[in-house]
Amino acid sequence: MLPSKTNNGLFQAHKRLRVADSGKNAVWISSNGKNGEPGDEVPESEKTVTPYSSPFKCENNENQGLKEGTAAEMQLSPQQVFRMEMNKTIARAKRIHRICEQRVAEAKAKGMPFPKLEDLLVDETWLDALPSEFQKPYMQKLSEFIVRESRGSTPIYPPPALVFNALNTCPFEKLKVVIIGQDPYHGPGQAMGLCFSVPNGIKMPSSLVNIFKEIQQDVGCSLPSHGNLERWAVQGVLLLNTVLT
């Protein structure tokens, strides 16, 4: 350990400049160009401490952090930014779907085969755009009708958690395009709450194949291998059927 110094001794001019921590691992750089090795003893009269910024020092500087964050963002390519935003919106849609499934399970636990319709619209942007809509008489009748029908033997498509999938997947604030279909697919496993769309692994209906062919002829896009249009929805395409079930 190095002996302590007075202030006058610490700030002597133009002798040896210390550029590392104290102790045997210190490295001293002389003003005449001669460097000392770690562990070398340096004459007390020639020691001078100079400010040193360690490469391992953690700076607590908000402005510096902002600059570094901005630089990191500027290094991202448009494709990387697009993928990041896409992943966020897809994760959000999946989170909302899990909430809907949980509400369906809670309704069944209470002996209700189908939850109230108002419990199946989760996206806040659409709830703000449609204030008090679920309290109107026509919506109350619709909710009672679908609960009554769900007690029968006829299956209802899509599954309850996906009835408002078109709205839950495409936030109102991101809406750019509206594509309107007629009614949900009536085959098992086909309907997913987005018009013309089918889940991965399900054969594409002819109507969807025709849409893809038109897109290919118009803008040259290659034909996809599946019919899941969820990525359209999260980018602002509202895939809405005139009849939701």
Outline the structure in words.
The protein has 245 residues and is mainly α. It folds into 2 domains: 7-49, no CATH class; 78-241, Uracil-DNA glycosylase-like domain (Uracil-DNA Glycosylase, subunit E). The protein has helices at 7-10, 62-74, 78-109, 124-129, 137-150, 165-169, 206-219, 230-234; strands at residues 16-18, 28-30, 47-49, 177-181, 237-241. Strands 2-1-3 form a 3-stranded mixed beta sheet, with no helix packed on it. Mean pLDDT is 81; it is low at 7-35 and 50-59.
Topology of helices and strands:
Elements: H1 7-10, E1 16-18, E2 28-30, E3 47-49, H2 62-74, H3 78-109, H4 124-129, H5 137-150, H6 165-169, E4 177-181, H7 206-219, H8 230-234, E5 237-241
Parallel strand pairs: 1-3, 4-5
Antiparallel strand pairs: 1-2
Helix content: 25-40%
Total count of helical runs of at least 4 residues:
8
Characterize the biggest β-sheet.
3 strands, mixed
The CATH superfamily label of the largest domain reads Uracil-DNA glycosylase-like domain
Specify the overall morphology.
globular
What's the CATH topology name of the largest domain? Uracil-DNA Glycosylase, subunit E
**How many distinct domains?**
2
**Distance, first to last CA:** 81 Å
Question: Which percent band covers the strand fraction?
Answer: 5-15%
Order of helices and strands: HEEEHHHHHEHHE
Could you give the order of strands across the largest sheet? 2-1-3
> What is the number of E strands?
5
Mean pLDDT: 81
The first-level CATH class of the largest domain is given as: Alpha Beta
**Cα-atom radius of gyration:** 33 Å
CATH hierarchy: architecture of the largest domain? 3-Layer(aba) Sandwich
Summing up helix and strand content along with how strands pair, one would put the structural category as: mainly alpha
GO molecular function: uracil DNA N-glycosylase activity
InterPro entries: UDG_fam1, Ura-DNA_Glyclase_AS, Uracil-DNA_glycosylase-like_sf
GO biological process, one term: base-excision repair, AP site formation via deaminated base removal
Family: Belongs to the uracil-DNA glycosylase (UDG) superfamily. UNG family.
